[in-house]
Design brief:
alpha+beta; 3-stranded antiparallel sheet
């Protein structure tokens, strides 16, 4: 997707590089990492190329299977991006049983 260009010669991925929360699910170990970003695709790419959580990257590099989910921040259900991130960290137990070291930003 990153290299595909649309009619206006813009990268197609820019349409999806939006503000929100991402969930990295290690399907091999059944662990989650939840994070937030103003450019979701760029941030997740960082995790998968060694510029994020080191443990997530190590598991990915050693061949664990990951599923990635994005939730765009629209300001309707959550007042802030921090609130949205904390909700998903709690929902997936990403601090207790996953990769997150904190409950999220305050």
């Amino acid at each position: 997707m990153r290299n595909v260009r649309n009619k206006k010669n813009r990268l197609a991925s820019e349409r999806y590089n939006v503000k929100g929360v991402y969930i990295l699910h290690n399907r091999t170990k059944h662990k989650y990492y939840v994070g937030q970003a103003h450019k979701l695709l760029s941030r997740v790419n960082g995790h998968l190329t060694g510029k994020g959580n080191g443990i997530v990257y190590a598991d990915y590099a050693y061949g664990d299977r990951f599923y990635i989910k994005f939730h765009r921040f629209r300001g309707r259900s959550f007042k802030t991006l921090n609130e949205m991130e904390r909700y998903y960290i709690n929902k997936y137990h990403a601090q207790e049983d996953g990769y997150n070291k904190t409950i999220g930003n305050r």
